[in-house]
Fold this protein.
Amino acid sequence: MSRSRGDAGGRRAAARGIAGLVPLTRLMVFGSRLPLTRTPGEAGLGFEEVVFEATDGVELRGWFVPAGPEPAPTVVWVHGWLWNRLGNVAGLVPFPDRDVDFLPATEALHDAGFHVLMFDLANHGESGARRPLTFGPWEARDFAGAVAYVRSRPDVIPDRVGAIGMSAGGNTVLYGAPGAQPMKALLIVQPTKLTVFNERFARDRLGRFGSLAARSMDLLYFLMRAPLPSRQDPAIPARRIADATVQYVQGVGDPWGTMEVVENVSAATPKSLGVVRYPSPPGRYEGYRYVMDDPAAVVAFFRAHL
């Protein structure tokens, strides 16, 4: 009898795992569009609606928040997977997440004399489509387009451009920065090695079926003629960021990323300041609170290096 109940429980768990595999795989490959619910005006900031192109022609949309009319250094925000230019709104994805708000740090940077560009990556927010998501290699075209756009503005000091990259946005900056030189200062929060992230994330959400989902990613990307997840390592492009000072941040309670991965990327970066071990409670999204809880540290980094 107990064996029968155990078999039934195993079948139910298998059914839940299989049912969850398809929507999670779809999100990882094709993404989702988080709607814009606010503007910088709600933080009392003036801003411009801007439209520019990625280096492959995909239309990108965002906001330029000027510190004033005079030429100034500029910080480019690069958001994470399934987010938009504002950050993240919790509760709209089938896994535990938290709100991530870019406006407090944007306001602090503005008040410190930095222009700020907030924009949506391809397949996110209001920007155009490029599929599949590659979590860095193809999104680097968006970052390069954003940097080219701000450098085209007369109110931007072209050799004083920096960036904040969050999660997959951190990978995007690492892949894009070598082709967008000169970059001066990069703040990279919880970057990932895709095979490690996919395995840990999928197993956490799907149990033993998570490994199946993670292993299937290479085949999907091969069929879509996209960069294979198993061949991605952000430490490789990080070695080519010769001029920028880079500060890494990793939450100690992150269940899907690892401190070891971030430390390895940091060790490969020529001018890395090392890894801030942010004392976050358990959860991936808790580590992103670094930019919300300590905007003064964000400003201090860019004041020192940009």
